[in-house]
Every structure is written in structure tokens, then in C-alpha cells.
Amino acid sequence: MPEDSAENPRPQIEFRSDVTVELVRSSAHDSDVLFAARVSTMGEQTLAGAQADAEGDQATKGAGLINYLMRDRHGSPFEHNSMTFYVQAPIFVFREFMRHRMASYNEESGRYRELNPVFYVPGEQRNLVQVGKPGAYDFIPGSPEQYELVVEATKATTTLAYEAYTKMLEAGVAREVARIVLPLNIYSSMYVTVNARSLMNFLSLRTKREGSQFPSFPQREIEMCAEKMEDSWAGLMPLTYAAFGKNGRVAP
């Protein structure tokens, strides 16, 4: 691999407090739910109806059926769609993502490329202090002194780790070995492909919302990703999204 030089300098360390979520491809409409559900009672007659629903405004007439499916947890009709998101976030967020075995993931590799020195540091709005106990806890703002400590310690240890990483690379150590010193707050990127039913399951666990039938206590950084995914999905499938909220944000 090329060494650092005046012609090929390594990038400077960058600290971020946000995440990136972009919808890059989708085939997801409320009409997808309708024709998949109607095959149960209409069989081959749904072939023509599926095309009509996709091209016209027939989906708007199916709000009652979608709500019924959501309320009574007939889940499979919500699987006949697809959304692919590009996500940039700290690696510790990705490890939480991949506990959800309901999506397809492809992540950039620290074996095949030199990782960019972009690292997460909590923003001032990030609550720092946990109160309560597991299952019934919340986070509240920290003091200015606590926030200063978090930022200072994060930046110091991150800088030291990245210097060790680049030192090994410059000595000819393989990327897959050098990367072991990098901290969990380094950013990675991946594609996530998911259907609406699986996304609802993810959102029910990784967002905290009033009116949820089953309260959740997500880590804020993965909730930031979930919120952006939810915003994109809400625009693609508004009837399904409305039924999800109306029925307590429970995945069917």
C-alpha cells in the first residue's frame, strides 16, 4: 500500500456527531401489501389487480384492509417489498444493527481498504447520565464538566489509536492486523436491504415513542439511524406507516 507522502498524504482525523442514512433504491408501495393479501381469497384474479393497484390510486382504497392486517398481525403481506439504505455510522452502531437478523447487510472491509479516520464523538445534545435500572431507565443531560470529559477522552484515545494504526501500515503490517487497534467509534459504511415487516420490527425496538405498546430503550446512536429510515419508509408506504402507528408500533 502507498506510504504517506507529500503527493499522497493521509487525511486528517475528522470527528462527527451525526449519522448518514440514504434510501438508494426501493420497490415499496402500499399496493404491494394489498395484492399480496388478496391472493388468499382471490387467487389468480389478483394478477390484473396487482398491476392496476401499482399504476393507479387503488391503494388509497385499501386503508381498511391494511389496518386489519396490521391489527390482527397477518404479517406476510408486508414482506412483498424492498428498501435499500446506505448507512454511515460508528462501528458500535453496526454491531447493534446486526443483532437484528431481519435484513441483508454488506459493510466496507478493513481488510481490503485503509479505513478513513472519521470518528464519532457525542454532540452536546446527547444525554450522558443513566438513571433507573435496566428495563425501566432513562438518560438525562450530563453536566458541562462531564461533557468536556467525554469529548476530551474520546478525542485523545482516538488520536492515539489512529496514530498506532498508521504507524503499523507504514511499517508494512497488513491492514487486517493494523486495524485491531482502532476503537469502536470509527465510522463504517454499509448497505442494508429490508422489507417493511422487518423494518417495523427494527423500529419497534430501536425507537422510543409515546403510544408504543411495548416500550423500548434504544441507545441513542442507533435510534438516530432508525429515525432516518422511518422517515424514508413513511413516505413510501403512508397507509402502512399510519396503521403501524395506530396499532401501537407492533410489527405484525
Task: Write up what this structure looks like.
This protein is α+β, with helices and mostly antiparallel strands and 252 residues long. The protein is 42% helix and 18% strand. It contains nine helices and eight strands. It has helices spanning 30-42, 46-55, 63-71, 91-97, 144-170, 175-178, 196-206, 220-236, 238-246; strands spanning 14-16, 20-27, 82-90, 104-107, 118-120, 129-133, 136-140, 187-194. It has a four-stranded antiparallel β-sheet with strand order 2-3-8-4. β6 (129-133) and β7 form a beta hairpin. α1 (30-42) packs antiparallel against α2 (46-55) and α3 (63-71) crosses α9 (238-246). The longest helix is centred in the middle third of the chain and has 27 residues, at 144-170. The chain is globular. It starts with 13 loop residues before the first strand and ends in a 6-residue tail after the last helix. The relative contact order is 0.20. The model has no long low-confidence stretch (mean pLDDT 90).
Structure summary:
The chain has helices at residues 30-42, 46-55, 63-71, 91-97, 144-170, 175-178, 196-206, 220-236, 238-246; strands at 14-16, 20-27, 82-90, 104-107, 118-120, 129-133, 136-140, 187-194. 26% of the residues are buried. The strands form 3 sheets. The chain has a 4-stranded antiparallel beta sheet with strand order 2-3-8-4.
